[in-house]
Amino acid sequence: MINLIEEALITMFLTIKKRLELLIETQKKVLNNEIVFDPDKANFGFKYLEQLFPVVHYEIKGYPCVAYNKFSDLIKFGVKVIPLELKFENETHPCKIELALLKEFTSLVTS
């Protein structure tokens, strides 16, 4: 039990440099398919998927969640579960714009 508490404290006090290194390392794992987000599997292929906070269904377009395999994982993944809206065409769906912005932001942070 003390190990989990120590690991949680270490995680909280990581330096910005170490966080950036972990982010770059994690990004490489995703690009090399060592970490795979699989929408066909339960919890997108992770052991745990938890909703961050409750939302009112008709007021929000997505459900913010966190995904991870172990509590002690240094990097946990933010996942926004978005129900498909059929009133938008696939190529012009607002989520495509959000995804493009998130990819650009990630590349700016990691380069």
Question: How is this structure best summarized?
Answer:
It contains three helices and three strands; from the N terminus they run ααβββα.
Order of strands, main sheet, comes to 1-2-3
Task: Give the tally of structural domains.
Answer: 1
Helix % is: 25-40%
Biggest beta sheet summary: 3 strands, antiparallel
Radius of gyration: 16 Å
Order of helices and strands: HHEEEH
Q: If helices are DSSP runs of H or I spanning 4 or more residues, what is the number of helices?
A: 3
Strand content: 5-15%
Total strands: 3
Task: Let me know the average pLDDT.
Answer: 77
Q: What shape does the CA trace take?
A: globular
| Computed structural class | alpha+beta
What does it look like?
With 111 residues, the chain is an alpha+beta fold. The protein has one domain (2-110). It is 40% helix and 14% strand. It is built from 3 helices and 3 strands; from the N terminus they run ααβββα. It has helices at 2-12, 16-31, 94-110; strands at 48-51, 63-68, 77-81. It has a 3-stranded antiparallel beta sheet, with no helix packed on it. The longest helix is centred in the C-terminal third of the chain and has 17 residues, at 94-110. The mean pLDDT is 77.
What's the topology here?
Blueprint: H1 2-12, H2 16-31, E1 48-51, E2 63-68, E3 77-81, H3 94-110
Antiparallel strand pairs: 1-2, 2-3
Name the features.
single chain, alpha+beta, 3 strands
